[in-house]
Structure formats: C-alpha cells, structure tokens
Amino acid sequence: MKRFVKIMILLTLAVALLAAAGCGGGDKDSGQAKEAKVLNIGFTGPLSGGAAFYGKDILTGLEMGVEQVNASGGVTVAGEKYTLKVTSLDDRYLPNEAATNARRLVKEYNASIIFCPHSGGIAAMQEFNEVENFLIAAYSSEPKLYARGNKLTLLLPPPYNSYIDPFIKKTMAEHGKKVAMIQSNAAYGKDWGTLFAPAWEKAGGTITINSPFSYNTETDFAPYVSKALATKPEVLFVGGASQPTAMVIKQARDQGFKGGLIVLDQAKFEDMADIIGMPALEGAIGIYPYYMNPRPDKAARDKFVSDYKTKYGKRPTYEHVWHYETALALGKALEKAGTVKDAAKIFESMRQVLPLDKSIAPIAIEGVSPKGGYTNLGMAAYIKNGQYGDPIDIPRTE
Amino acid sequence: MELYFQQLLNGLTLGSIYCLVALGLTLIYGIMHIPNFAHGHLYMVGAYCVLFLCTLYGLNYWMAILISMVILAVIGIIMERLVFHPLRDSPPTNSFIAAVGALLFLEAGATVLWGADYRRMPEVFDKVVNIFGIMATQQRLVVIFSALALMGALYLFMKKTLIGSTIEAMSQDREGAFLVGIDANMVSMMTFGVASALAAAAAGLAGPLFLVFPSMGGLLIIKAFVIIVLGGMGSIPGAVAGAYILGLAESLGATVFPAEYKDLVAFILLVIILSIRPTGLFAKEGR
Amino acid sequence: MTPSINSLRSGKAIYLALGLLALALPYIITSKYLLHVVIMCYMYAIAIYGLNLILGYTGQLSLAHAGFYGIGAYTVGILTLKLHWSFWLALPAACILASLAGILVGLISLRLKSHYFTIFSLCVGLILFLTIEHWDSLTEGVRGLIGVPPPNPIPLPGGGSIVFTDLNAQYYLVLLCLVFTIFVMNRIINSMVGRTFMAIRNSEELASTIGINVFTSKLLSFVISAFFAGLAGALFAGYIRFLGPPMSHPNMTFEFLLMLLIGGQGTLAGPLVGALLVNTVTESLQFMQSYRYVVFGPFLILVVMFFPRGITGGYYSLKNRIRLKKQPRAAHKEAPPVLAADHAKTKSEELRG
C-alpha cells in the first residue's frame, strides 16, 4: 500500500514536471508566434509573500494604462500595428530575482521596457540594462539611483526631499518646535529621516527623540508611541505604508497626543481617513490626496478616478496614476521612436512626447529632467477643522 | 515614571497575547514533541475568521471569537490528522519541516483568498480610559482580563475534565498514559484542537488593536518559540511566565534601548539564557 | 557490493558526460536568461551542499544557514566596495569569516539537541539578519549595498583578459566553485570523518558510546557548512552586485531547505538536483505567482512523508528495489519503508558513487 502511494506520487510528480517543462516550451512558442502583434511591457515586482500587496497594487495602474492604449487602437510603430501587453513576473522583492526576471523579459518576451517598483531590483537591473538594451521605468525615490547616471532609467515618483522644508515651515508655525521622530525604519522612512532631522534643527527646532521602528514586523506599536510621547513633543513625524501609519497615529491619539503630525509622502491621507477618520488626522501635513489634486485637468482626473474605482473598487492614489500616465506616454513614445527595440531611442522620444494632451492626462506629467526623473511639482495638504485646506505647492529641488 | 506605567500596561497587553499563543504551542510540544511552526499562522487564520464573522456576518464580537475558536479547533485537528499524525514515527526534523510546509501553505493560501493588504477589525471597546494618568483604550483592558479568564478556563479544563486530565497525564508520562489505556490519537487531536482554539482567541482579542494581514503570524511564532524555550519546552507555567516576561521586556526594552535594536535584544537574551541553561529556565528535565 | 563494478563504470561515463555538458553549456544555450538561471542554481547548490552536510549527513537542522550566506556576501560587498579590495582576496576572506562565525555559533549552539538546536539556530539566523539590517554604517542597512564591483579581470598570458561583466566568465567561475564543492563533499563523506558524521546522524548516543567525540564532529560539520554558505554568498555578491538584507533572512534558509529536501538530503547529487529542479519549476510556474507556496507547501509535506530523502533518495530506493527483485535470494527480503533502512542503503550507494 505504502509503496503504491509512493509510486503514485512519483508518477504525479513526473507528470507535473513534464507538464511544467511543456508549459515553458509552449509559452515560448506562442510568444514568438504572436510577436508580430503583441508588444510586451515588462514588470517585475513582489507579487507573492509579504509585499505582494504593494506589487499588485502598483500593477493595477500600469495595466489600466496599457488597456487604455489598446482601447484607443494600440500603437503603430514603423507601419506595424501592435497591441501592448503587460507581462508581470514575481521577484518576491529580491534583487537577484528581479535580475532573473529582467533577463527573461528581454530574452523571452522581447520587452524593451521594464517597470520595477523597488530600489533593490532597480539597482540590480542597472548593472546590465545599458549593455542588454532595455529601459527601466523605476518607481523608487532612492537618491542613489539618480546619482548613478544610468542612461536608460526613467524615475517616476517626484523626489521627496522637496517636501521637507515646506512641511517644516508650516508645522513649526502651527504647532511648535519640538518633534519626535517615529517614522518607519524601512529604506524610505530612513531616507526621509536623514534629510528631515538636520533640516528641522537648522530651522531652530529640537528633536526630542529619533526612534524609527518597523511598521510591518512589529505586533504592537503602542510601546514606541508611549516612549515618544513621554518626551513631550509638540509634533510627531510619522509615516510608512498608509494602514500601519494610521494605526500609529491612532495609538498616539488614544494615548492623549493632541499636537501636529508630519506624515511622509508614502502614507496617503485619504486611505488613512478611511481607517481612523479625519478627526484623528487634525493638524497633519502630508501629501495632497490625488483624487482632489487641482493641477491636472479636472475632467481627465475625475474620469480616471471613477474608471479606476469601477474597475478595482477603490480610490486611485499617486502610485496608480503615475504608472497609468507613463503607459499612455510610452504608447506615444513608441510610435514616435519608430522602433520597439531601441531603448535609448524610445526614452528620447518619451522626453519629446511629454506633456500629453491635457484632456487625456490625469496627472499631467510635464517632462523628463536630464537625470531621468519627471519634472512635476509636488503638492501638500494641511488638515485643519477636518478639511484638507488649500493645496500647498511644493517647489522642486533636485 | 508615568511612562513606565504606560509601558507596563502595553507590556501586559502584549504578554497576554503572547501567552495565549505560547500556551497552545507548549501544549502541543508537551504532548507530541512537535515544534508546530505553523501555529502562528493558525493565529493569522483565526484573526481573519473573527474579522469576517464581524464584518460580513455582522456577528457580535464575543460570538465571533467563540465561533472562530471552534472553526480553528477543527482546522487544528485536520492539520494534526493530515500532517503530523502520519509523521509521528519519523525523525524530529521531518515534523519540523512539515510544519514549515504547512505555514507556507497557510500564508500563501490566505494571500490568495483574502489578498495581501492590511485589514482592520472594527473596534468595539474604543473608549479611551484614563487610569491615574495612563491613557488606554478599553480594548487593552479587555485583552488583559480575557486572557486571564481564558487561562483560568484552561486550568479548570485540565484539572476538572476527563479529556483535560488525560492530556495532562500524557504530557507528564507518555508510556504510563499508554499503559492505563489512554487513546493517544484522541489526545493528540484534542491537544491540537485546544491549542488552535487558544490561538484563535488570541487573534480575536488582539485583532482590534493591530492590523490583520497574511504574514502577521510569522514574527509572532518566533516570539512564541522564544517564550516556550525560555520557559522550558512543554512546561505550561513556564510558557505563562515566559510570555509575560517577554511582553514586559519588549515594551520596557523599547523604552531603554533604541527601538531598532529591540528585536535583537529579545533574541540575544534567549541566546544567552540557552548558553547557560540549555533546557530553558523552568524545565523539569533535559530532553 | 559485487555488482557495483559495472555500475561504477557506467556511473563514471554518466558523470563524464554531465561534466562535458556543464562545460559546453554556455555554447549550447544562447539565451542569457537561461544561462543566468543556471548560474543562480549553481550558486544555490553550493550553499545547499553546506546545508546538506550538517542536515543530511550529520542530522542537525540548522536554520542559520542564510545568515552565513549573508556574511559571505556582505564581506565581499564591503571589502570590494568600501575598502577597494580585489575580489580574489575578498572571496577567501568571506569564506574564512563565515567559517569563523560558524565556529562561534557552533560552540554555543551545538551543545543543544534536536529542537532546541533548531530553534536556537533560527534565533541566530534572525540575529544575523537583524544585525545586517540595522548596522547602517557598515552594511547600508535596508537600503542595501549598491554597486558592488564585479570580480577583477584576470589577465591572460597571451594578452587580453577574462572580464567578469561577461556572463560566460561568471558561469565558469561559479561552475569551478561548484565542482570544487562537490569534490570536497565527496572526499568528506567517503572519509572517516564523513562516516563519523553519519554515525551521529543515525544515533548520537550510539556514536558517543563507540568513542566518537560528538561535539567536535558536529562542530566540524557545522563550520564546513558555514564555509560553503559563505562561498556561495561571496559569488552572489560578485555576480548580482546588489546586496540587500532579505538575502540573509531565515526565509532564504527555508528556500534552501526546500531545494535540499526535494533534491534529496544525505545524497551527493541531491543539492544540485534540487536547486536545478526547484528553480526551473519555479521559473516555468511563474504564472502561478502567489499560488507558488500553495503548491510548494503541501508538496514539502508530501516529500518528507513519502520521500524523506527526496528525489535522489527515491531514485536510489527504486533502483535498489529493482536490483533486489532481480536477486530474490539476497539477504534483505523486503525493503522496509522506514528511514533507518534507507540510511543503510544510501551509505552503500554513496560509497559507490
């Protein structure tokens, strides 16, 4: 009996392996057969494991953009008609997996543009993307990525360091000069912290405690919040992913904190308000909610917001809209470049096709800087009396 | 000074959650000598059960916890039958690896079914109370006292019921228990059932304070292991003591040490203790 | 053992063929993607050989393995990037440092037995991970080490040089290390030391009664295993050239463990078979993404239940069974399905191949 079971399992295993091998082969064939019609846009990001939420979330914006391009007739490059297709591979947030995926996307799917939403993967791909000729569309604010001078990297999000001075100015005027820093200790939070702390002190403030902690592995945030509040700050500097940030703020309010909040731009007010309500966010400064952003054409913005909502059942945030509009711009750039292969030429055309026509551009990307980042200004909100107040323009610093 | 009382309260809350999880883990280890690495993920499943019962079916908070304790008990028994029972005669590493397989499955399954995003359980006891200057939501007090009540119930169950005493008998003397005709199968299943139900209770209590997401069990299980190793694996009083020690050490440690090194402190503490006493602080005998 | 001469010969032929195949591989598969996957498999295999020695041959489940892998990688990363050492000096330094860490950890942890050891090693793994993650000034913490230089070019006597930005050169470097690893492992398990390890695996009590110094042997095995984890990490650093803390997380150890168990613990071919198989299957099952562990989890359980020694072990058992059927009067009448018998069998196979 036992032997029978064993043999059965061995057989099943063998069949499964053969099937898997067959699948791999089949995929490749069909990929080549369809090559004339389908143009693959690569994506590598965390699609399983703890960070899967982030990767999948980002992907929605990109996919929606690509669908939009296809719905308006696809792209015609050098007389040949293509439909775009997002081919997404899972890298589990690991740089080496991202490198594996990139090579696969280039070799097996003929992708010449690869999106990646984490600095590790981007850095690993930058080691060979110029040689192997593909454009990285990077969603990361890591300053070192700007500094590396990679010629084929497009950086989507605006540089966060622009926010720091305006945030400090407003908060100091409204709440006081004593800040406790309890932001996330992930790379992004740390980067913010290293720029924020000296700027705050330079503006004449004091830091009562500088104690970032892990927003995604801690069970209970209360001990950190208690510790920070014991130093009697007037302002809390918080931020990481929206949901844990909301919990941190809630803990602080529960423990009687009444002061102001500086929220780094990864956390979105609209998402946090859904969880803990506007009153808890009173006196907070952070990034202006996208769905209310007045800078792009209102009709285009509202259409995108409602389309996204119908499709995914939630409000879009900047992550989604940056990817969406980048996909639109990419469609135009491919047509202008007249090539689906030459990444440098596509990137160059990308610079030329921006800005897009206002009526279709929900975030109105202005252009690409020499270093490869978008040139848009940032926009902040200060919450007073349960209202977002007037948007505060954030001048760009690079 | 106020800060230390605040942290004491935080530590007790955390300790209570740890305690319920670690109790289940140590019960299973005491009876079957299986380090059930998937126990934290049963906690996670329990949290989702309570969450859905509350939000989708609009059940009363306590009802939801009770029902998810039953659901988890069943899941625990199924796991015992499918995974650990067939491995009872294999080398110890095999059951450990099987537990890792189970945890990978549970986490991935939860991600597929319910998505990887953070969810939040509705808070029933959300009034802020002020006890001598310490501010806390009622939920924290609910956690602390419910955990105590559950421990009391567990004690009565072990001492006063037939099943309970069989479990205890078997953890004390395996061969002896066989000799007096205790059905080992039955005991194993019951142990897994009780342990998983405790995990569900812990999750239900902690739910409104923390966020619910598929990988929430991962870090907790390691803490729970630290606790039962501290307390001597298989020892029930050891697990209770260890849980409160770790909970308090963590919240007070967060006050004393830089936040970033807090996790390190817990593990280094364990390493030091194990280096001096290889079988934990409260162990009866070495195994 | 009498019929083994023939199989020895055919075995040699097979190994020769495999070796030639490995050498010619970059010219057979032209896809850089596939070559990259193979390079990663070899790298993992080197680390898994280390794990195999301590788990498969010595019977101690250590969950700190990825920690040593991380130490190896970060040593190379830091030495070459920050101190501008040559990769060729940093590589041995990484192996030595990983071994030293192995000695330190082993001295404390190996006094513990069974589950205590495993949990202890898990904590050590976490400590190593957290140290790498938090020691910003040394490791750049969560941001990771960006831009580790590739191995320095080796000048050739006739002019020109081997440049390691080239994928083929990397392939041969990793292959060379893999061959070295397998060679060393083969020597170890066929030596007195290796048999001591296996004696400990089968029963620590028995081993100590026949005069084996259990602690020293376990320590030796542990340190060698850390050495190879360090080697694999060092190669990783020179190849991927970006290092982030997740590579040293115990989750990575679980990945290694998965590959080892599926390939077959306690067999010489197991780690390589496991690494190649699991990675190719994962790559071809990419479309499954989040379902990956929904499948792999139960799979792992089935493997430990029915093939505690993985595919290689299963293959050997099957071969043995067929051979036993051919000689019905052989001493063992029916192969009992328990582990102990499997152990005994493998030993003879290992000696042959």
Summarize it:
The complex is a heterotrimer of chains A (398), B (287) and C (353). Chain A is built from 13 helices and 13 strands.
Structural overview:
- The complex is a heterotrimer of chains A (398), B (287) and C (353).
- By secondary structure, chain A is of the alpha/beta class.
- Chain A has 13 helices and 13 strands.
- Chain A has helices at 2-33, 52-71, 95-109, 119-126, 143-147, 161-174, 187-202, 222-229, 242-254, 269-276, 298-312, 318-337, 343-353; strands spanning 38-45, 75-77, 80-90, 113-116, 135-138, 153-155, 178-181, 206-210, 235-238, 260-263, 284-287, 378-382, 392-394.
- In chain A, α6 packs across α7.
- Chain A starts with a helix and ends with a strand.
- Chain B has one domain (2-218).
- Helix content of chain B is 73%, strand content 4%.
- In chain B, the strands form two sheets. A two-stranded antiparallel ribbon of chain B has the order 1-4. Chain B has a two-stranded antiparallel sheet with strand order 2-3.
- The longest helix of chain B is centred in the first third of the chain and has 31 residues, at 2-32.
- The relative contact order of chain B is 0.20.
- Chain C is an all-alpha fold.
- Chain C has a single domain (29-352), classed as ABC transporter involved in vitamin B12 uptake, BtuC (Orthogonal Bundle), CATH 1.10.3470.
- Chain C has 15 helices and four strands.
- Chain C has helices spanning 4-28, 32-57, 65-81, 87-109, 114-134, 136-139, 167-189, 192-202, 204-209, 214-240, 250-263, 270-284, 292-306, 310-326, 339-352; strands at 145-146, 154-155, 161-162, 242-243.
- In chain C, α2 runs parallel beside α7, α2 crosses α8 and α11 packs across α12.
- The longest helix of chain C has 27 residues, at 214-240.
- Residues 330-353 of chain C have low confidence and may be disordered.
- The B-C interface holds B 29, 33, 35, 83, 86-87, 89-98, 100-109, 111-112, 116, 222, 225-226, 229, 233, 260-261, 263-264, 267-268, 270-271, 274-275, 278-279, 287 and C 55, 59, 61, 108, 111-116, 118-120, 122-124, 126-127, 130-131, 134, 254, 257, 261, 290-294, 296-301, 304-305, 308, 338-339.
